[in-house]
Amino acid sequence: MTAIPLQPPRRLVEFTLDGAATRVPEGATLLDACRAAGKDVPTLCEGDTLTPKNACRVCVVEVEGARTLAPACSRAAEPGMSVHTDTERTRHSRRLVLELLASSVDLSTTPRAAAWIVEYGAEPGRFGADAARLNEEPKVDNDLYVRDYDKCILCYKCVDACGEQWQNTFAIAVAGRGFDARIAVEHDAPLTDSACVYCGNCIEVCPTGALSFKSEFDMRAAGTWDESAQSETTTVCAYCGVGCNLTLHVQDNEIVKVTSPHDNPVTHGNLCIKGRFGYQHVQNRD
Amino acid sequence: MSKRDRTPKTYTRLTHPLVRDSRAEPFRRATWEEALTRTAAGFGRARGAFGMFSCARATNEMNYVAQKFARVVMGTNNVDSCNRTCHAPSVAGLSAAFGSGGGTSSYEEVEHTDLIVMWGSNARFAHPIFFQHVLKGIRNGARMYAVDPRRTKTAEWAESWLGLNVGTDIPMAHAIGREIIHAGLANRAFMERATTDHEEYAALVEPWTLSLAEQVTGVPAAAIQELAHAYARAERAQLCWTLGITEHHNGTDNVRALINLSLLTGHVGRFGSGLQPLRGQNNVQGGGDMGAIPNRLPGFQDILDPDTRHTFESAWDTTIPPRYGLNLTEMFEAMEEGTLKAVYCIGENPAQSEADSEQAARRLRALDFLVVQDIFLTKTAELADVVLPATAAWAETDGTTTNSERRVQRVRKAVAPPGEAREDIDILCELAGLLGHEWKYADARAVWDELRSVSPDHRGMTYDRLEALQGIQWPCPDEDGLEPSYLHGRLWEADPQRRGRRAPFGLVAHDPPVDATDEAYPIRLTTGRRLDSYNTGVQSGGFASPLRRGEYVELCPEDAERYGVVAGEEVRVASRRGSVVAPVWVDPGLRPGLAFMTMHFPDEVDTNRLTIEANCPIAGTAEFKASAIRIDKLTDRSG
Hints:
The complex is a heterodimer of chains A (286) and B (639). Chain A is an alpha+beta fold and 286 residues long.
């Protein structure tokens, strides 16, 4: 018999979630517990493949006995804790966060943002029409992807994905401090003069569309981007022998962008330039 | 002339069959009926002189049907694919040692190992997502050593870079082995229990002292010693390699020399300890597993074994020649001799991917009948009598492929193919029908189920399980269980019966590159990949990579100065076989006397005019990694 190492068995933690007794494996976050219980807690900066950054505060919940609200994405469940996900205090906090974000950032391509704004009664307009907006043109400096910092909520997911958590290229970093903080490549240069290797893993994790495929950007500009008409099919990359999983997003028989399943044991949501962008050869049809 | 276009030739999809009555004529559009009738007639005339080039980029299912076509319809074992040009030595070397040609570990184990040796591999560029697993391992505390003539982006992550001279891998490995033995770090218990020939191995490596190895490899003795001790002392260690090891005239010997180190230390057959050849194309592993090689039937079963043959003869209602067929290299030689007259080439581009490409094209032209089935009119297709438009396996076809960690995964049809293009399996089955064999497969799953019925290693992998588990590593003999992620755990069994066949040490000797450098050709040219490009560029040329700068001959700063050339300046690069003109790029990761080129842009710079067709006699792989060249300044070039 050959030995196969196993993870040590994980204990279960018992606590109360919105008044109901709940059990989750030790180490699970409150967000994990909410999702397991079918509760829809809004998130923006949380990334399933990344260490939580606690940047956006849109997922806050109330823990009985705690002075402040807790970000569900990074707070681990503890035995005996009593957690409330939908109280006046959490709703108030989420409303304000959404108001501040939506007043300063273009959330038009953030999935579900519009619905949350309605759900929580946020009124971003009360800070004035162009409160604290960057009002910058999107940076289009190559044929693969576009940076639109008007849509950036400074969640730092792209920094983590480009840095030590996955890609280890370190092309993307935070420049400036405080109100001047912004995402940039070194010397705020065009991408083509940076260390970027165009793996697109930053696009994969970006929650707002601040980083997007050029193909998507162009189709949106032309008014032809139609997610409801797109199919998603997961297949295996046609290049090297590593066997990366690609999810092809297809509209009108054209591949319009490529993502990767985050729970896949080969890729964990990551790809290289060829897997992410090297699909065009199959559709050079005339 | 000075400003080069960064956009390579873009290939457009084939949308309908093409035929011609003689090679002097241009192609004309044909109906499928005409193209297939001609093909069947041409193959029918060529019985006994037929070769099948199957495709390492197509699905397992297509490779299964293609090899069955060769064996059942054409009665020959002459079936092979481009694994011959890259990792056949890995398969041959691993088979010789362990009886199985797959890499022994999983990617996940690289994250949980203590030491990683990357030997002849620039994985950061050639296998980037595998390298993310390596980086996880490094972040988890593993140390990495890079053994490579070039100080690559991979080497930048290493504890130590051992920049050896091209073609001195065996001296390096032997010196490491000798040092491990002399330092008393060999795993004697493992060796005595699970290996054979270790005494002979010890005698073989005895002359390879650290100082002799330093002279031959160019790597300081202390660095070799450090790697030897680190590898032997590690609790778990992964030894990974790619084409820097295999693309030599003695590639299989190189692989054996590396495997010896794992046998010496017991770094095989345990979680986190193993051997990983990183495969170059998406389904090189699967093509061989499916029997699209001249010496193995599906499931990597030896064709010379009478029981195996009998199984397939019953399943296919045929007789299988009880001898190995010709491999790709031998098929090219048989074209020269006139004994191979017809070739069915599916999805391969040997006119550009073979070493000494001029010679390869000449031999293809000498065929009586060439049929190319592809998605583009490649340089090889331009030589054909009939061209059949196929689908892109990964995006327009359902099926499976098998990756470097032996994981079989589903590929799925996402887009409809253009024009009249048809799936490979459909075309093969219709041709089989025209030649008297009625094959009916409802879909790719039906082909896969037939394969499962004849291949014990794949028997437990139903499509539903592959889907649910996001792929399964072979072996998977039953539908209920899963095997460990690593191979050859049996070598650690106490019971000799269960331990099975012992792994023999490979008693291989150093043999320097065939194409020696001298005064006329003083520079060693080695080849490899860049991050954004791939093989002959037919696929990767289709997208607008900001990293792409076309083909260059890369020199170190010292050599550039010695030859009086600057970056961007065009020079003539000549070998004993041919010459090309290419601009210079200066790379400080190279050393004096070492130049680097790729095969990504053959329509611009045909690097394979320079490479030598010296082949590994066991695996048939050519010595792409070691040509002797000369750089000539183009002083009076006009324009």
